[in-house]
Amino acid sequence: MASFRTRLALMGSASALAAGALAPVQLVGAQPAAAASYDWVALGDSYTAGVIPAAGDVFEIPRDGCERTDLSYPQAIDRDLSSLIELTNVSCGAATIEDITFRAQAPIGRNLPGLPEDPDYPFPSVPPQSEAVKPGTDVITVGVGGNTLGFDEILRKCLELGQGSGGVGTPCKDDLADNIPGKLTKVGKDYDEMLAKLHEKGPHAKILAVGYPTIIPKDTSKCRYNDIHQFFSITQGDLDWLRQDVLEPLNKTIEKSADARDSATFVNLYDSTEKHSVCDAGKWVEGILDSDDRPAFVHPNAKGHRNAADHVTSAILNAIAPS
């Protein structure tokens, strides 16, 4: 069996409208006023930006290193609702909550460990994403938190510790579990500060806090040990731990922060993706590699982004509906 490092190197009532792909003509046909433009700013990390080949092609020319793809959910919604809403998409792969609130980010592009160096790396820093929000912004969507939690590092550690285990035991939980409560506390604190900043920048905007989809199934017996298209060397016990003690609490932390503010609403992607995890046949999230052996490192594919687009669209339409 190849080593972990070697295998990584291989990674070369809007709800009814959402179900019907939310055809813009339905919205515009009712009244001329529906054609008015609303300003929408999309903020977030790689689960918003797209990033992986299975989520489409990078469309930024010249590239800024954030790796926004044309099948990501902001771009899908923009195509659906372009006559109604004007999109500013500043989401960026690897963004933390602080990168949205106040810190300039140095995008990493495709310059990842185990892969050939990105020919365009290093990229100039991009401003804090909150700077895209203006006093006249109507809707803000934000999907972030995983990088503040350190999920990428946790995943890599679990892959490393699972090597040679035969899929037995919980080596990752045993090593990392004590650190997770403190990380979740930081996510909640940073998220609260971010929502306050976004409200300050866009005082009339409705903020939609977008949660994360189901990544790991409840029945982890579906997950095949050493399958590079799933979770490769992470043990079943560690997958159960990651789902129950890391990923589900991450969503709950985001939801709690959103629920505490009148200007914010949580958008739940977890329930609708329950049967489309990395280990399901109809997956909406790819594994370490996608089915074409391209790097994915557990990110939503185009189908996952289409599902997110439907749910976020419903939330946007509710947000701009006359009260």
Regions with little confidence, pLDDT below 50 for 5+ residues = 1-36
Structural class label: alpha/beta
Measured between the Cα atoms of the first and last residue, the distance is 60 Å
Overall pLDDT level? 90
Radius of gyration: 19 Å
SSE order, one letter for each helix or strand: HHHEHHEHEHHHHEHEH
Number of helices: 12
Helix content: 25-40%
CATH architecture label: 3-Layer(aba) Sandwich
Total domain modules: 1
Name its key features.
323 residues, alpha/beta, Rossmann fold, five-stranded parallel beta sheet, 5 strands, disordered N terminus
Could you walk me through the main structural features you see in this protein, from its secondary elements to its overall organization?
The chain has one domain (4-320): 3-Layer(aba) Sandwich (Rossmann fold), CATH 3.40.50. The protein is built from twelve helices and five strands. α5 (73-81) packs across α12 and α10 runs parallel beside α11 (236-259). The model is unreliable at 1-36 (pLDDT under 50). The longest helix is centred in the C-terminal third of the chain and has 24 residues, at 236-259. The N and C termini lie far apart (60 Å). α11 (236-259) links the parallel β4 (206-210) and β5. It has 323 residues and is of the alpha/beta class. It has helices at 4-9, 14-19, 24-30, 46-49, 73-81, 97-101, 146-149, 151-162, 171-176, 180-201, 236-259, 302-320, and strands spanning 38-44, 85-89, 139-143, 206-210, 264-267.
Quick overview:
With 323 residues, the protein is α/β, with parallel strands linked by helices. The chain is 38% helix and 8% strand.
